[in-house]
């Protein structure tokens, strides 16, 4: 019997977020789907998706990051247009409404500049998501750490590792779901990391 080497997993899937990999295992991302990586950075989550025939788009505030993602896409999915990858704020996406079947937003929303900016980003992601589409977000929250972090003004907290993050709580997420008339695809899942940060996965159906 032939066995694949365990080391082939990294070569096949790259550094994809394990929580995003879970969505692949559940069949929620398929070849040919239009997918937006919102806050794509240099494309850590994209190599497997590009090779698998997903119609990937990406947006990031960093011009240099977008350049690197374009180079990655030209190597792994040369038929994708370079202008699938653009520089923009998530609060003002340069895409028509109802464009994407899947939107990923990983480790981005806790960098919101205000509560209005946080809500604006979520609402804009929702605008460009197709009815029936999936919004997958992972970001820092206060869930499991309420009262244990240095709170500044409003929902801003100074994190133990240094930076200031905007941290939503479950009540804010529930209120946004009502505003969007969203359906939770699965329960909120929060990982507590060394009592320093809580990273919550929020998966919605439009």
From TrEMBL:
Alphabetic keyword roster: Methyltransferase, S-adenosyl-L-methionine, Transferase
Short name of any one Pfam family annotated for the protein: Methyltransf_11
A GO molecular function held by the record: methyltransferase activity
CDD domains: AdoMet_MTases
Record-linked InterPro entries: Methyltransf_11, SAM-dependent_MTases_sf
Domain Methyltransferase type, chain residue ranges per copy: 36-137
One GO process term, biological-process aspect: methylation
UniProt name for this protein: Class I SAM-dependent methyltransferase
Organism encoding this protein: Pontibacter aquaedesilientis
């Amino acid at each position: 019997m032939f066995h694949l080497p365990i080391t082939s997993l990294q070569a096949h899937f790259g550094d994809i977020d394990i929580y995003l990999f879970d969505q692949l295992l559940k069949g929620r991302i398929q070849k040919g789907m239009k997918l937006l990586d919102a806050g794509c950075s240099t494309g850590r989550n994209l190599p497997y998706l590009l090779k698998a025939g997903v119609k990937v788009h990406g947006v990031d505030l960093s011009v240099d990051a977008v350049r690197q993602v374009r180079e990655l896409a030209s190597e792994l999915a040369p038929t994708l247009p370079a202008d699938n990858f653009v520089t923009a704020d998530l609060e003002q996406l340069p895409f028509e409404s109802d464009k994407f079947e899947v939107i990923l937003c990983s480790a981005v929303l806790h960098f919101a500049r205000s509560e209005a900016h946080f809500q604006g980003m979520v609402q804009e992601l929702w605008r460009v998501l197709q009815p029936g589409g999936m919004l997958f977000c992972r970001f820092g929250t206060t869930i499991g750490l309420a009262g244990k972090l240095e709170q500044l003004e409003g929902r801003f907290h100074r994190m133990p590792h240094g930076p200031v993050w905007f941290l939503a709580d479950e009540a804010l997420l529930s209120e946004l779901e009502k505003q969007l008339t969203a359906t939770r695809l699965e329960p909120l899942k929060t990982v507590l990391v060394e009592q320093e940060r809580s990273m919550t996965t929020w998966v919605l159906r439009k």
